[in-house]
Design brief:
alpha/beta, six-stranded parallel sheet, three-stranded antiparallel sheet, 11 helices, binds NADPH dihydro-nicotinamide-adenine-dinucleotide phosphate, EC 1.1.1.37, oxidoreductase, tricarboxylic acid cycle
């Protein structure tokens, strides 16, 4: 049998955690032959820790054969000990009257501490996915706070945006969603992201040629994907949680187990690809093989796309500038 892998999840008693943990324990991320140990982090607050105990009771009651161990933590230094995988879900939500810079500062504190803890105690090969918003900048902060770990270990979730765009395109064309390949979502996980289907195919045919509607792209598709999170809050009265957890699972599954040549979108630190400055955590098309992702290079960027890609980049650069003084 395989040795168990250690998986840390932060914000484990939250909404997304509730949709995520059971699927990790069921083998949906690492495979149906891979035992896992869950190391769950919540804030020290008594209510949060008690809620976490409740979630752990339910995990026990599922009797998942692959779940061979589980611990609760309030300190990242113990939660991240020897981990192979980290899902950083917990983040400080925007409160009433809270300004963007306060939100950035509150999260900078959380992700500096977590980056340092990863640096100190996680496996050197740890794969980190940041879900908690502002996800790209939180991933950047954690990466910069972990100088002894490879920068490439730090990623942010763009997969929900990718999956949302796939479903919008499939519905528009009346084609099966699973047949669409080569979609890209560039940039920040925020309404400025740029879903780009210029290279996409469905059953081998060009999606752009099939849809052939630049006005729909600009005025319906791009804004619909960008504002989907808000539309779900409006309809459900709660933010998207199951679909966010599902996207986190897709992201980590593909990173660990590979994509067989298919493109997926991941927020990863740039090495200067497509003119994005080094270390900016930006949504890029990638393929994954043997536990490593690789940015798809050499795609042609037209004027419309360049403008969108720079717009979302500028937002990321502003976020970075907003936390610069908090990083030592
Ligand atoms: P959720 O589980 O719903 O969301 C967690 C984070 O994911 C938020 O930052 C949220 O951002 C983000 N997110 C990213 N993509 C999406 C998406 N598509 N839809 C919805 N959310 C998305 O929040 P809860 O409040 O239910 O739970 C958070 C938990 O984290 C709490 O239990 C809290 O105690 C804990 N926490 C833990 C910390 C730690 O472990 N150190 C630190 C801080 C909090 P957004 O707010 O923008 O929607």
């Amino acid at each position: 049998a395989k040795a168990p892998m250690r998986v840390a999840v932060t914000g484990a008693a939250g909404q997304i955690g509730y949709s995520l943990l059971f699927r990790i324990a069921n083998g949906d991320v690492l495979g149906k032959d891979q035992p896992v140990i869950l190391q769950l982090l919540e804030i020290p607050d008594e209510k949060a820790q008690k809620a976490l105990q409740g979630v752990m009771m339910e995990l026990e009651d599922c009797a998942f054969p692959l779940l061979v161990g589980m611990t609760a933590h309030s300190d990242p230094m113990t939660a991240f000990k020897d981990i192979d995988i980290a899902f950083l879900v917990g983040a400080r939500p925007r409160g009433p009257g809270m300004e963007r810079k306060d939100l950035l500062a509150a999260n900078a504190q959380i992700f500096t501490a977590q980056g340092k803890a990863l640096n100190a105690v996680a496996k050197r090969t740890v794969k980190v996915l940041v879900v908690g918003n502002p996800a790209n900048t939180n991933a950047y902060i954690a990466m910069k706070s972990a100088p002894d770990l490879p920068a490439k270990n730090f990623t942010a979730m763009l997969r929900l945006d990718h999956n949302r765009a796939l479903s919008q395109l499939a519905a528009k064309m009346g084609k099966p969603v699973g047949d669409i390949e080569k979609l890209v979502v560039w940039g920040n996980h925020s309404p400025t992201m740029y879903p780009d289907h210029r290279f996409a195919t469905v059953g081998g045919e060009s999606v752009k040629a099939l849809i052939n509607d630049p006005v729909w792209n600009k005025e319906v598709h791009i804004p619909t994907v960008g504002k989907r999170g808000a539309a779900i809050i409006e309809a459900r009265g709660l933010s998207s949680a199951a679909s966010a957890a599902n996207a986190a699972i897709d992201h980590m599954h593909d990173w660990v187990l590979g994509t067989n040549g298919k493109w997926v979108t991941m927020g990863v630190p740039s090495n200067g690809e497509y003119g994005i400055p080094k270390d900016v955590i930006y949504g890029f098309p990638v393929t994954c093989e043997n536990g490593e992702y690789k940015i798809v290079e050499g795609l042609e960027i037209d004027e419309f796309s360049r403008e969108r890609m720079d717009h979302t980049l500028n937002e990321l650069l502003e976020e970075q500038a907003g936390v610069k003084h908090l990083l030592s």
